[in-house]
Amino acid sequence: MLRFAQISDCHLYRDKTALHFGVNVYQNLCRVLEQIKRTPAIELIVFTGDLTQDHSISSYQNFTDAINETDFTLPVYFVAGNHDEPKLLQQYLSGTPFHSAKVINKNQWQIQLLASKSTTPSGEVSANELARLLNCVDSHKFQFIFMHHHPVDVGYFIDKHGLLNKNTFYQTLNKLEAVKAVACGHVHNALALKIDITERVIPLFTCPATSIQFDQNATRVENSGKPAGFRIFELADDGQVNSQVVFID
């Protein structure tokens, strides 16, 4: 059994005391990391983007400070969100415990981190990125894909900034029979959805934000009042995927 955590959408500021829709997002991130540390048998973390809210250099340093202040030693893998600058992620998320690799091989599983950042808040997976995905697949392992943008509509305002080339992504999934699940951030809620492609249905898990959860009934960004959270995944050697959501009260 491979057990690991997903965190997403920290939306940090240069000021560690800054509030995002009434919430201290730096403090939230630290509390989430502390909870993950106390969770048994977690082997690694996958961070699915939107580290920064104000796009400042200091916000990237604050993310690494949160890791260091909580004395975090588990490997942390990452992919950029629409707010992030990939070069700054590479620069600041370097050294222990960060890993810039976009393929994780563990037990009977291969975890793929897929870039979906575009020039707009919406997502797009480039042809080169999809080709990289296909080329690095180990046909002897089960596959789990992580990305920032959501590849199916969730039914509220964030859909206007979803994945633009969904059909192209689905065509790629059809070529990968070993894909057992897809996970993403961006939607600021913990949802269990499905990707209905030609040959089969693939589970899609969305991650609660460490910052704020969106009000799904609002027409623009509003804080629903739900606490910060993260996901835990358990991947069995027979290809089964189990997940649970943890909220920090």
Tell me what you see in this structure:
There is one protein chain. By secondary structure, this protein is α/β, with parallel strands linked by helices. It has one domain: Metallo-dependent phosphatases (Purple Acid Phosphatase, chain A, domain 2, 4-Layer Sandwich), CATH 3.60.21. It has five helices and 14 strands. It has helices at 25-38, 57-69, 86-92, 127-136, 166-174; strands at 2-7, 19-20, 23-24, 45-47, 76-78, 98-99, 103-106, 109-113, 142-147, 179-184, 192-196, 201-206, 229-235, 241-247. Strands 6-5-4-1-13-14 form a six-stranded mixed beta sheet, with no helix packed on it. α1 runs parallel beside α2 (57-69). The radius of gyration is 17 Å and the shape is globular.
In one word, what is the shape?
globular
Radius of gyration, in Å, reads 17 Å
The biggest sheet, with number of strands, parallel, antiparallel or mixed sense and barrel status, is: 6 strands, mixed
Q: In CATH's first tier, which class applies? A: Alpha Beta
Question: Fraction of residues in helices?
Answer: 10-25%
Span between termini: 28 Å
Strand order of the largest sheet: 6-5-4-1-13-14
**Beta-strand segment tally:** 14
Order of helices and strands: EEEHEHEHEEEHEHEEEEE
In the CATH hierarchy, the third-tier topology is known as Purple Acid Phosphatase, chain A, domain 2
Continuous helix count: 5
Per CATH, which architecture?
4-Layer Sandwich
- Tell me the CATH superfamily: Metallo-dependent phosphatases
Structural class: alpha/beta
How many independent structural domains? 1
Portion of residues in beta strands equals 25-35%
Question: Quick check: average pLDDT?
Answer: 97
| Uncertain residue ranges | none
Family: Belongs to the cyclic nucleotide phosphodiesterase class-III family.
Domain Calcineurin-like phosphoesterase: 2-189
Pfam families: Metallophos
Protein name: Metallophosphoesterase
